[in-house]
Amino acid sequence: PRARPSMDLKALCMYAAVPALLLLCSASTFIQSPTDVYGPVALHEPTPSSARDFGAVVFGAPFAIMRPESAADVALLLAALSSAPTRPRATVAAHGAGHSLQGQAQARGGIVLETRSLPRAVAVVVADGDGEGGENTARAYADVGAGALWVEVLEECLKAGLAPLSWTDYLYLTVGGTLSNAGISGQAFKHGPQISNVLQLQVVTGNGEVVTCSPTESPDLFFAVLGGLGQFGIITRARILLQHAPPKVRWVRAFYDSFETFTKDQEFLISIPEQVDYVEGFMVLNEHSIASSSIAFPAPISFNPDFGSHGKRKVYYCIEFAVHDFQEDDGSSVDHVVELVSGEMSYVRPHVYSAEVSYFDFLNRVRMEEESLRRQGLWDVPHPWLNMFVPRHGIARLKDLLVDTVLAGHFDGAILVYPLLSDKWDRNTSAVVPSTPDGVMYIFSVLRSADPSRCGPGCVEEILEQHRRVADEACRVGGGIGAKQYLARQPSQAHWRDHFGSSWDRFVARKARFDPARVLGPGQGIFPSTD
Ligand code: FAD
Questions:
Q1: Are 285 and 383 members of one domain?
Q2: pLDDT tens-digit profile of 371-421?
C-alpha cells in the first residue's frame, strides 16, 4: 500500500514555492478523500539524509521528500510543477544513494525525490537463449530500476552467470546516479564508461513525460540524460548490457618508483585488452601506507612490500591489473597470461603481487575500504575530493602540481591514477571529457577524508580552496593542462560554461527542450533560478 505522507496537507498547499501542489490540492478530481489527495503527490517530511551527502560539505534541507513507487508518480509531480504558472517554482532533485560530493542530489527548499523507492527488480534477459559466444555475449541485458544499487544488480546477474561490463570501484551507488555522471573504473579502457553500456532508458522528462529512449528511439533524450547531471529527466529504468561473468579474477599489483615508467606500463596494459580486463593504479605517498588495509589485498594474502626507504618520504606508484579467470579448476592459463604480461612490465623487481579472488569480491573490494574507514572514523566525515580527466600530455604536470600542493602536507585518503581511451566515450552523451589528440586520457582522483578534529578547524575549507586553485590551473582554457573535472559542482555558471566548452550550447538547448521550467537538478547549480 502507498505510504501515507506525514506532512500536513494544509502546510503543503500553503507552501508558496510549490504552486503546482496548490493546483493539485485544489483540483477537485484529486480531492475526493484524503487518500486521493495524498495519492498523486505523496510527500513526506525531510529526513536528515535528504539534506546531506557523502561529501558532507554542502547541506541544503528540502521542503519535502517524495518516495515515488512508479514512473507515473514521478510524471505526475513533474508535470504539475513544470506547468505551474507562478515563479519561483519548486525544484526537484533526484536522490539515489546520496554519494554526491557537493550537494548535487540536494534541493534546498524544494523536493528531494528518492529514487530508491522506485521498483528495483532486476530482470536478466538472454535474447538468443543459447548463452554461447564467449565472454562478450552482446545479446544479454538486464532491465533494472534506476534506484537499484550496482551491488544489487551484480548479485542478481551473477545468478544467471552474467554481469555488466563496466563498473564503478564502489558498488553502493545507484544505477541512475552513476549514469547521470559517467561511471568509471578499471574496465573503462576496454568497455568505456557505464554510460557507454546502456541499451535503453525509461526517463521522465522535466515536463512530466514518460519516454522510453535508446540510441534509435528518442535518441536526443537518451544521449542528453547519460552524463546529464540530472538536468533533463529522472531516469526510472535502465537496460544494461551484460557479458558472461568469470567465477574468479587474478588480481595483480606491481610497484614503481618512477611516474613515467608507471604510466608507460599502464598504457602498455590498456593496449592489450584481449588479455587484460581491468587496469587502475594509485600513488603511494609513503611506504607505510602500503600495509594499511585500505590498499591491502584481502586476508590471508601476505602483502608487505619493503622498498627500504627507511622512513624517508618517497612517492611510489602501484599498478593494479586483473585478468578474468573462466577456468573452474586451477586456472593455469590465467597464470600464464599474468606471467607473460608482467614479464613485459618494468616494475621495481621483485615487487609484483597477485591474488585470486571471486569475481564478486573483486568488484566489491572497496567495501573492505569502507569498513576500514568506518573503523577509523573516517567515513562519515567531510570528503573534499578532486577528480579530473587529464589528457596524456598533461599528466606529469598535473602530478607535480598535486604533489606540490594538495599532497604536500598530511593526507588521509587515496590517489587513483589510471588511463582511459577517449574513443570509448560517445560524444553524443552529456558527459564532458578533454580533447585528447592521441586518444589517451587519465583520471586523477584525490579521494580525501578530512576530519576537522584531526586536520584542524577550517581545514575542509582550505582543502576545497586549494582544489579550486588546482582545478582552475589544470582546466584553464589555453595554455593549461586541458583537464576537465569529474563529479564536481562548478562554483558559477561561467565556470560551467568553461567546463562544457564547445558543448555548452548543446547542453543549454537540451535543458530548454526537456526541462524548460528548470525544475530539475538545482543542486548542480548549472541553471540558477535567478538567471
Ligand atoms: P546521488 O548522489 O544520489 O545523485 C548524483 C546526481 O545524479 C545528482 O545530481 C542527482 O540528482 C542525479 N541523479 C541520481 N539519480 C538519478 C536518476 N535516477 N535520474 C536522474 N538523475 C539522477 N564514480 C565513478 O565513476 N567511479 C567510481 O569508482 C566511483 N567511486 C565512488 C566511491 C565512493 C565511496 C563515492 C562516494 C562515490 C564514487 N563515485 C564514483 C561517484 C559516484 O559515481 C557519483 O557520486 C554518483 O552520483 C553516486 O551515485 P548516487 O546514487 O549516490 O547518486
A1: yes
A2: 888 988 889 999 999 999 999 999 999 999 999 998 888 888 899 999 999
Residue at which a domain ends, from 226, 244, 262: 244
Of 494, 471, 387, 476, the closest CA to residue 168 belongs to 387
CATH number, domain at 69?
3.30.43.10
- d(CA 112, ligand 1 centre) in Å: 15
CA 447 to CA 489: how far, in whole Å?
A: 16
253 and 339, same domain (yes or no): yes
Cβ of 115 less than 6 Å from ligand 1: yes
Q: Quick check: pTM over 0.90?
A: yes
Distance from the alpha carbon of residue 100 to the mean position of ligand 1, in angstroms: 5
Query: Residue 319 is part of a domain; what is its CATH number?
Result: 3.40.462.10
Residues 394 and 463 in one domain: yes
Q: Is-contact 30 19, C-beta < 8 A?
A: no
From 47, 77, 168, mutation site for ligand 1 pocket: most ligand atoms within 8 A of C-beta: 168
| Catalytic positions | 99, 169, 280
224 Cβ contact list (under 8 Å, min separation 6): 232, 233, 430, 510, 514
Ligand 1 contact via 387 beta carbon (within 6 Å): no
- Residue 101 — very low, low, confident or very high, per pLDDT cuts 50/70/90? very high
Cβ neighbours of 394 (radius 10 Å): 21
* Cβ 386 vs Cβ 467: under 8 Å: yes
234 lines ligand 1 (CB under 6 A): yes
Atom of ligand 1 nearest to the CA of 54: 36
pLDDT digits (tens, 9 = 90+) for 318-348: 999 999 999 866 657 999 999 999 999 999 9
- Residue whose C-alpha cell is 553502493: 172
Interface ipTM > 0.90:
yes
CA–CA–CA angle 348, 276, 303 (5° rounding): 40
